[in-house]
Amino acid sequence: MRRAVLKTIFMVFAAPVAGIGALVHAADAEREKQVDGMRVYLGVLPSELLGPKSVAPGEHGGVPKGRGYHHVLITLFDVKTGERITDVEVSARVEDVGRTVSNEKRLEAMLIARAVTFGNFFAMPGRDPYSIHVKIDRHRYGVSEVTFHYRHL
Amino acid sequence: MIGRKLLLAVLALCLSAGVQAADEKHVKVVGELVVHTGLLPAEMILGHRWATDMHGGVPPGGHVYHVLIAAFETGTGRRVDDLQEVWATVVGQAERSDRRRLEPMAFGGEVGYGNYFDFPDIGPYQVAVHLRRRGGPVQIVTFDVKHVRV
User: From CA A17, how far away is CA B43, in angstroms rounded?
Assistant: First the structure.
């Protein structure tokens, strides 16, 4: 009985700790990616930084209540010209690796320091590694997809 | 049986504490202010090819982030947009420090304060924010930030 309890303690505490160590190296924060001639930048801010004024009534479904919500932001540039790309539709889903996957949400265009970015709120409460899957619809140029591996800084 | 229940209770407590600590890392209370912080890659604001002198230009380096803060009154929850002085000092493991004024800026229709800082090394950094309201004392709040990279 005592051995069984000790074994259980090891399985509950020691094994996950070893796993976390591996994940720290495997999954990390990525801030930019290149896909189909676009440079894609990722930013994640605590939702409190972007208050109610940042979201029009009904937009993004409103500012979510509760802890752990973050604003996932995407900015796009044309690799050749360096121009900011704004005439696109962007959506994303956030996967808490090995646990949960959010619904796919549209990222709404918004201004940060007069720069157009696309963003929406997602529940990202822990320091777990996340995969952020981004879909970019450039209309006549087709749909591009890119995945960022992310964890809170 | 009792051992198993105790084990589950301890595990639940540990998991709960871990999430809470992670959740609150970006928010600190100092005096009558609640201060939130966040970082964005500089390119998101400056553009793919930096060509602006916003905030007096950006520091050299390949890992420049825009450090943002927003402050709220503890009692009312009202956003504070009239800070008289806001400075941040970023210190990394190499003991190099960079001190810059965080300037008022609009993000998403709200007022925050920010500036650009280079985070050249992988590892932990401390971001010490000095802020003062009109007629009030200087308040200092420190955030731990870890720069991780693939």
Answer: 35
- CA–CA separation, B40 vs B64, rounded Å? 9
The model's pTM: 0.75
- Within 10 angstroms of residue A63's Cβ, the number of other Cβ atoms is 17
Residue A5 maps to a domain:
no
| ipTM value | 0.71
Give the residue numbers spanning the domain of B45: 26-147
- Closest CA–CA distance from residue B109 to any residue of chain A (Å): 5
Residue B19 lies in a domain: no
- Domain assignment present for residue A35? The answer is yes
The domain that holds A80 is classified in CATH as: 2.60.40.3340
Number of structural domains chain A divides into: 1
For residue B9, tell me if it sits in a domain. Answer: no
pLDDT, tens only, B16-72: 333 333 345 788 999 989 999 999 988 898 886 654 455 555 666 668 899 999 999
By Cβ distance, the residue of B36, B47, B149 closest to A48 is B36
Local structure of residue B103 (DSSP, 8 states):
E
Alpha-carbon distance of A7 to A78, in angstroms, equals 55
In a domain, B39, yes or no: yes
Tell whether B129 lies on the interface with A, counting CB pairs under 8 A. no
Q: Which of A17-26, A37-46, B126-135 bottoms out in mean pLDDT, i.e. has the lowest?
A: A17-26
